[in-house]
Amino acid sequence: QVQLVESGGGSVQTGESLTLSCVASGYTASSLCMAWFRQNPGKDREGVAQIDSDGRTFVADSVKGRFTVSKDNSKNALVLEMNSLKPEDSAKYYCAAKSGFCWLPSLSGSEYAYWGPGTQVTVSS
Length: 125
Known about the structure:
Distance between the termini: 40 Å
Strand content: over 45%
């Protein structure tokens, strides 16, 4: 069983940066296909970025050039570096994972078996 816990959320101003981390337990993160999603109340969940077990990445067009996804194998964690934040980036961010092979892009939430509780990001103008 994989357990995921996100951290690093907070409140920032437009143009500032945040780095989110998702620590995995029960499995080696480097072997997992992992992704970041975000969601606001009443809105659809949006896939933000993905990284597979080989380290290949995919980033959604809405955040391309501003967000970077990676794994920190020393901490068994998934990382999302968010730069040049905009108010529309405000959401609850969730880490998700699945074992085995995954295609890129795979940003449909139904593909992921394991989810963290989420961390809130608020960007004010």
